[in-house]
Amino acid sequence: MTPYLTLDVFTSIPFTGNPLAVIPDARALPEDALQKIAAEFNYSETTFVFPPEDPAHTARVRIFTPTMEIPFAGHPLIGTAVALARAGDGPEMTLELGVGPIRAHATETEARFTTEVALQILAHPEPSLTARAIGLPETALANPPVLASVGLPFTLSELTTREALAACVPDTAAFKQGAAAHPGSLDFAQFAYWRDGATIHARMFAPLDNIPEDPATGSACAALGAYLTSLHGPQTLTIHQGDDMGRPSRIGLRTTETSVTISGAAVPVMSGTLSLT
User: Fold this and answer.
1) Which of 68, 178, 191, 193 shows a CA-CA span of 20 to 30 A to 169?
2) pLDDT above 80 (res 277)
3) How confident is the model over 49-60, as pLDDT tens digits?
């Protein structure tokens, strides 16, 4: 019987934000069960916590979507750090992820992490294809989209209006075409946003990864922060995500020339045990 808990992340209000399942001690689980467990929860991510490889670190964290293991993601890192703080770790932590060690600071209610993974510009997807993927006319794009990553790739598309963001409807056929054209694009995951000064409103779609829409995507926010920093210098922003799907999330973003810090709250919702026979 292996315990688990769920938290809603990037919120302090249950049943908003982005749900996350955490298995705080995954040592007893067989390797071939991890992906099946993540698919069973069917959240955008599930995390499995193991002892660290480096005893100076806090824990090793493996992150699974419903269909694959990924090396880095934001809301799992925030939620797992809060879960570890509630279990007595911290407040300063170093968590081992697929992208390497990540520094975090966590209390029982909120966390932040800093990544210094360098920004990668992987491609410049065709604007017409990107617009079709999110169900908008090409004229709704404020700038040409860019496929960028600081650990996990996303196509970043700035839109001309908040109304355009609200009108997004993912087109699975266009996602399949984009994934074929850009094999390293995480199934052509789309992060569309509209900026209003220090506030960004955003939506993320990854239907080919069984995530029709994600309420909060810290890894995409990190990629966007690094990209905006490369254009305009250090940023201090608040990202509003999930509003258009009824699960409002608030993500803090602060950058320097060489780092991105993501912050937010998390609240526990459920706990129980996995019964595997």
Assistant:
1) 68
2) no
3) 999 999 999 999
User: 68-83 pLDDT, tens per residue?
Assistant: 999 999 999 999 999 9
Side-chain half-sphere of 61: how many Cα atoms within 13 Å?
35
Q: Is the peptide bond before 91 cis (omega within 30 degrees of 0)?
A: yes
Q: What tens digit of pLDDT does each residue of 183-207 get?
A: 989 899 999 999 999 999 999 999 9
CB 270 within 8 A of CB 23: no
What residues are labeled active site? 45
**Per-residue pLDDT at 262 exceeds 70:** yes
Specify the pTM.
0.93
> Other CB atoms closer than 10 Å to residue 71's CB: what's the count?
14
**CA distance linking residue 42 with residue 232, whole number of Å:** 37
Mind spelling out the 3-state secondary structure of the chain? Answer: CEEEEEEEECCCCCCCCEEEEEECCCCCCCHHHHHHHHHHHCCCCEEEEECCCCCCCCEEEEEECCCCEECCCHHHHHHHHHHHHHCCCCCEEEEEECCEEEEEEECCCEEEEEECCCCEEEECCCHHHHHHHCCCCHHHECCCCEEEECCCEEEEEEECCHHHHHCCCCCHHHHHHHHHHCCCCCCCCEEEEEEECCEEEEEEEEHHHCEEEECCCHHHHHHHHHHHHHHHCCCEEEEEECHHHCCCEEEEEEECCCCEEEEEEEEEEEEEEECCC
Handedness of CA 126, 259, 187, 212 (dihedral sign): negative
The rounded distance, in Å, linking the Cα atoms of 207 and 169 is 11
Which residues, listed in sequence order, are joined to residue 48 by a DSSP beta bridge?
23, 62
Q: How far is C-alpha 159 from the chain's CA centre?
A: 20
Q: Which two tokens stand for residue 184?
A: 């390293």
Q: How far is CA 83 from the centre of its chain?
A: 17
